[in-house]
């Protein structure tokens, strides 16, 4: 089943007849494979690791699939399709990236849900693109097109980075965050509460949903000997976490993971401000699965601690897999839960 934005692209597939096509930020479906009925070749860049996994096994001589915040090469394409991101601040980065991979006079196509901000594309396009033209409007989505008319600046991550200093209970750290990553320019209140109530840790520690690496950096500031593994599903978050580690002279193992599926072995501690959004929708499914997987990944006497919005119903699932619910700290918006 194709997502609504993908359905609009497919119903306009004649635009890609015999062309080399690049999809950026594609969704969790088989659109890239379906486009091969018209396109000469399709390359797909996923910023979401789950979306990459959905398509990875479909690769062929005509279909290449990558995960990351950039392509691993400088290949140029006849046209690029950008799926408008859930975070509006990420859109200019993706448009710049698209331009870097377009042939001169190549076509840019931008598709997205009306409620997601795609309507603003005519005002968002930089000077190296022609004016945007609306091509289609269906299934609560819009499709725009534009032509590349000038060279675009090369992508440099520092141009898309917000750097700020944090005074945490563990000490002063520097945070480097990228556009589109959670809590882009300041520390969110939930993570702040969690950092104020971190236990003393040792051994192998997992930071699930690491984002820009705030928790990772705080853990290593308090105890440089920790073996920290930092996982996230989002390519921009992983890149931001690596920038944060470098800025603080720290080291951790940073890698993509769909939930805890790519985390190997067991941990002495699992610490997290877990995500509770899937796209534009709030959901507890991600966190519920995380609680279940955590119980299996935690050593017998390991420590598990998360922060969550107090209105979200975590207590039942925590009690189910950890046999008890311990609220270590709370305020009028958040609760810090632990396994003991």
Describe the structure.
- This protein is of the alpha/beta class and 340 residues long.
- Helices cover 25% and strands 33% of the residues.
- It has ten helices and 18 strands.
- The protein has helices at 4-11, 31-34, 49-56, 91-100, 121-124, 189-195, 214-222, 235-247, 285-297, 315-322; strands spanning 20-24, 41-46, 63-67, 77-83, 102-113, 133-138, 141-147, 161-168, 171-178, 204-208, 227-232, 253-256, 267-272, 277-278, 281-282, 298-309, 326-330, 334-338.
- The chain has a seven-stranded mixed β-sheet with strand order 3-2-1-4-5-7-6, with helices on both faces.
- Helix 9 (285-297) packs parallel to helix 10 (315-322).
- The protein is elongated.
- The termini are far apart.
- The relative contact order is 0.10.
- The model has no long low-confidence stretch (mean pLDDT 94).
Separation of the first and last Cα atoms: 43 Å
Low-confidence stretches: none
Portion in strands: 25-35%
Shape: elongated
Largest sheet: 7 strands, mixed
Biggest sheet: strand arrangement? 3-2-1-4-5-7-6
Q: What portion of residues is helical?
A: 10-25%
Number of strands: 18
Number of separate helices: 10
Radius of gyration: 21 Å
**Content-based structural category:** alpha/beta
Topology as H/E string?
A: HEHEHEEHEHEEEEHEHEHEEEEHEHEE
Mean model confidence by pLDDT: 94
